[in-house]
Amino acid sequence: MEKKIIGSEEWCIFPELGIPAIKARVDSGAKTSSIHAFNITPFRRNHEKWVSFEVHPLQNNRRVALRCEARAIDTRNVKSTSGISEKRHVILTRVRIGEKEFDIEVTLANRDSMGYRMLLGREAMTGRFVIDPSTSFQLGRVSDEKLKKIYITEDKPINGLRIGLLASDQNLYSNRRIMEAAEERGHKIDFLNIKQCYMRLDAVSPEVHYRGGRVLSSYDAVIPRIRPSMTFYGTALVRHFESMGVFALNSAQSITKSRDKLYSLQVLQKNGIDIPTTGFANSPMDTNDLIEMVGGPPLIVKLLEGTQGMGVVLAETRKAAESVINAMKSLKANLLVQEFIKEAKGKDLRCFVVDGKVVASIQREAAPGEFRANIHQGGTASIVKVSREEKTLAVIAAKTLGLKVAGVDIIRSAKGPLLLEVNSSPGLEGIEGATGKDIAGMLISSIEKNLRWKRTQLVHEEEEFVEDQDV
């Protein structure tokens, strides 16, 4: 068989999936090919395992979405280039590259943060192609004009809700995804830098202004994503929008509760939620009793103002615990001392709660040499099936603090699941990447539901829906 020369990137066609053009990165370092997929839903058809999913075939364009179905032939654990281990569905389908058409195994993965919507692995190339990495599109180009004709990419009219995203960095993955999800659904969304907003307090006509004097009026809803250093001003801003009758996806009161780690733990334990044994003291004179209170070393020392795993220290000996606690107190830092759950082995669960339901969950595992599971510090994430007890714990914790949207962190201990923390502005990148679910879309759907706003669309009903983990 004559082998064709291909470049570092090529256009592919998937006739059985109804994808007329998708640009692929050619990568001989990857064994299996992968395609961008979200809203992945396993189901059964004629007693066989199938999977439905949606694809954004064009990079940096989430308005064009194709719905696909294929028979699922396997599920495999795959580690992405970002280090996240995830279980992926595998399908077998036909692909056309240039003049060659053949069957190919493809894994389904959320590739939003990747440079290409598709990756062509070496299994698909073996015996068919030779790679010349210095070139591109050896088997043909697809022009922008042709893509517009194929996918009809004209802008859709905005006839939905007016939404403001209150945050600090427009380029963060989570913020970009939320804005894309809102626009996909026909809403008008504005990024509002919290620092550039200021308020007019007036009993008759309260207002929020933006840098330059623009009055921020006529918003139906705001989505607060407030970084810890901006909690005071950010929650004041959300309260002001609420006083103007604007719906906040998470209220100012609920965010304030969740950000105060000590207060949130007190509220949670008052409502019967199990937490690791925790101590809090003001005077250095109480250090020894504080250590004994949580069962002695090893123990965890946490700054109340810490976030994303920062300000969390494992003290393995009494001397180390005394040194860390007294050093932090000498700096007048507020801290918690918490028992160390050895049997967790550096793993915890992140349950993503939206409107009183766990919509996705992942297991986070600490990087080698670390004791705390944290993706921001080199940890990994993978899909996990959580128990009914763990789901209930996550839902009750979010409800107790009044959060409609929350990332609830749980640790598995010998005495059952324990609640670690509740995050009012949970990141989307790790959980969307691991699960392939459109979490950003769920946040927008929550706003639609709470405001009783409906859009006209066809709702597809599958035969015999099953949970992701069953395939």
Outline the structure in words.
The chain is α+β, with helices and mostly antiparallel strands. Among the domains are: 4-151, Beta Barrel (Cathepsin D, subunit A, domain 1); 162-250, Rossmann fold, CATH 3.40.50; 277-340, Dna Ligase, domain 1 (2-Layer Sandwich), CATH 3.30.1490.20. Helix content is 23%, strand content 34%. The chain is built from eleven helices and 27 strands. The protein has a nine-stranded mixed sheet. Strand 8 (85-97) and strand 9 form a beta hairpin. Helix 4 runs antiparallel to helix 5 (252-259). The longest helix has 14 residues, at 388-401. It is globular.
Low-confidence stretches: 456-471
Q: Give the assembly state of these chains.
A: single chain
Largest beta sheet: what is the strand line-up?
2-3-10-4-9-8-7-6-5
**What is the name of the CATH architecture of the domain at 4-151?**
Beta Barrel
- Helix fraction, binned, reads 10-25%
| Main β-sheet description | 9 strands, mixed
Percentage beta strand: 25-35%
Number of strands: 27
How many helices? Answer: 11
What radius of gyration results from the CA coordinates? 25 Å
Structural class: alpha+beta
> What integer is the average pLDDT?
85
Question: Topology, pairings included?
Answer:
Elements: E1 4-6, E2 9-14, E3 19-26, E4 33-36, E5 38-45, E6 48-55, E7 66-79, E8 85-97, E9 100-109, E10 118-120, H1 122-125, E11 129-131, H2 144-151, E12 162-167, H3 173-184, E13 188-193, E14 197-200, E15 207-210, E16 214-215, E17 221-224, H4 231-243, E18 247-248, H5 252-259, H6 261-270, E19 278-279, H7 287-293, E20 299-303, E21 312-315, H8 318-330, E22 335-339, E23 347-354, E24 357-365, E25 380-383, H9 388-401, E26 405-413, E27 416-423, H10 429-435, H11 439-450
Parallel strand pairs: 1-11, 3-10, 4-9, 12-13, 12-17, 17-18
Antiparallel strand pairs: 2-3, 4-10, 5-6, 6-7, 7-8, 8-9, 14-15, 15-16, 19-22, 20-21, 20-22, 23-24, 23-26, 24-25, 26-27
